[in-house]
């Protein structure tokens, strides 16, 4: 660090432990030596480090894949550092081009405000709200004005900007790039200047933006931040990254029973990855549990512990216990106490049409596919005949492990 060299206080065991916690599950920590010096300086002076995470409220809610980086924030928060949860209400107006092959349509100010309130509520399921500095980047971005924006843009070259993968690929593919998209990494980087952050966290897709913050801090005469990127969490399938569009996600606003069952559905191998990135257990505890499983303990025991921990975080310990009991009840063929009541007319009705009408399948053809797969039950009996017609009466209809309805057919 040529402009602002860090002094090198002695490296204590506590600093080494903080470094190990920082590295847990991370993809990259750059530069590691600088972060070690920052941690040592913090211990020597008693001045907590400033940990920055910015999220643009582009959608109304988040799934547990988004909480991977929040978990890292919480780990650093528990070490006594100042965590800054930055809501990018200004940058959302631009639209982050990261990983995009087209221009991202900006949201309206009203949409951003609604989403920001939801993000704040959801983030505080992981972060300690009493120890979190909540900021909005419109505070300093609006104040920049046209003159400040031009001065900021002068601190980076077009050639360097075009080194960014998504811009480079779009340019050579002849896909349009709007000038305002160049402003996004500059504005995100300027956030680090405004907040005087010591380290900025983000997903692996944010590396260019995080490095921009480091560059701009040097331009403005500040000690440059370190950057820490966290991997993108694999979804329920264990292959693709968690995404609502791929339907392999666990939403943090989902009910406790659904959340518990979804976590329990992941593979034994993926479970340990999720433990590292999502659990608040120490790595020593996780390693001990893994050794028990390797020694013969049922891996389902470990998976239940993970499912209960995650469910309790976003609901409560009591809700997690109830979700476990509900799952056991269902696995034994039991019917939940509280299931939707549906009234239909048109008896006799074909089973596939009934599944669609009751909201248990999106279409009759999908209903038939579910029947072929043995996933449909009526009054606890598996339906194998797609030609089945139900007469007037009341039936408990089940699709898969989690979908139920008490259907009264007239």
Automatic annotation (TrEMBL):
The keyword Cytoplasm applies. InterPro entries: aa-tRNA-synth_I_CS, aa-tRNA-synth_Ic, Rossmann-like_a/b/a_fold, S4_RNA-bd, S4_RNA-bd_sf, Tyr-tRNA-ligase, Tyr-tRNA-ligase_bac-type, Tyr-tRNA-ligase_bac_2. SMART domains: S4. A motif ('HIGH' region) lies at residues 57-66. Coiled coil: none annotated. One of its GO terms (biological process) is tyrosyl-tRNA aminoacylation. One of its GO terms (cellular component) is cytosol. It catalyses: tRNA(Tyr) + L-tyrosine + ATP = L-tyrosyl-tRNA(Tyr) + AMP + diphosphate + H(+). A motif ('KMSKS' region) lies at residues 241-245. Its EC number is 6.1.1.1. Residues 349-410 form the RNA-binding S4 domain. It is found in: Cytoplasm. Pfam families: S4, tRNA-synt_1b. Keywords: Aminoacyl-tRNA synthetase, ATP-binding, Cytoplasm, Ligase, Nucleotide-binding, Protein biosynthesis, RNA-binding. Catalyzes the attachment of tyrosine to tRNA(Tyr) in a two-step reaction: tyrosine is first activated by ATP to form Tyr-AMP and then transferred to the acceptor end of tRNA(Tyr). PANTHER family: TYROSINE--TRNA LIGASE, TYROSYL-TRNA SYNTHETASE. Homodimer. Belongs to the class-I aminoacyl-tRNA synthetase family. TyrS type 2 subfamily. This is Tyrosine--tRNA ligase.
């Amino acid at each position: 660090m040529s402009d602002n060299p860090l002094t090198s206080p002695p490296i204590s065991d506590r600093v080494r432990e903080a470094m190990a916690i920082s590295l847990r599950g991370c993809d990259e920590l750059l530069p590691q030596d600088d972060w070690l010096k920052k941690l040592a300086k913090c211990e020597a002076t008693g001045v907590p480090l400033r940990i920055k995470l910015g999220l643009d409220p582009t959608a109304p809610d988040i799934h547990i894949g988004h909480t991977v980086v929040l978990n890292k924030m919480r780990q650093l928060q528990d070490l006594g550092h100042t965590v800054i949860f930055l809501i990018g209400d200004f940058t959302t107006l631009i639209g982050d081009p990261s990983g995009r092959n087209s221009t991202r349509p900006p949201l309206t100010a009203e949409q951003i405000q609604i989403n920001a309130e939801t993000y704040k509520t959801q983030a505080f399921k992981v972060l300690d709200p009493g120890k979190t500095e909540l900021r909005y980047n419109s505070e300093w971005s609006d104040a920049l004005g046209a003159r400040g924006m031009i001065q900021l843009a002068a601190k980076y070259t077009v050639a360097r900007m075009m080194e960014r993968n998504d811009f480079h690929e779009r340019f050579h593919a002849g896909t349009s790039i709007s000038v305002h998209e160049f402003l996004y990494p500059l504005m995100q980087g300027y956030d680090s200047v405004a907040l005087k952050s010591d380290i900025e966290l983000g997903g692996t897709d944010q590396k260019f933006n995080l490095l921009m913050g480091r560059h701009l801090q040097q331009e403005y005469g500040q000690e440059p931040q370190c950057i820490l990127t966290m991997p993108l969490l694999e979804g329920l399938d264990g292959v693709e990254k968690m995404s609502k569009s791929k339907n392999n996600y666990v939403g943090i606003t989902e009910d406790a029973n659904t959340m518990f069952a979804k976590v329990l559905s992941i593979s034994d191998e993926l479970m340990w990855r999720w433990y590292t990135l999502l659990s608040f257990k120490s790595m020593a505890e996780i390693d001990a549990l893994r050794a028990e499983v390797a020694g013969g303990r049922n891996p389902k025991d470990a998976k239940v512990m993970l499912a209960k921990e995650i469910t309790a975080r976003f609901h409560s310990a009591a809700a997690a216990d109830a979700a476990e009991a509900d799952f056991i009840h269902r696995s034994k063929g039991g019917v939940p106490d509280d299931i939707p009541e549906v009234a239909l007319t048109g008896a006799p009705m074909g089973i596939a049409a009934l599944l669609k009408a009751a909201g248990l399948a999106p279409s009759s053809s999908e209903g038939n596919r579910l029947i072929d797969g043995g996933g449909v039950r009526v009054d606890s009996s598996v339906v194998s005949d797609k030609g089945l017609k139900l007469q007037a009466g009341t039936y408990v209809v089940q699709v898969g492990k989690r979908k139920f309805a008490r259907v009264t057919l007239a």
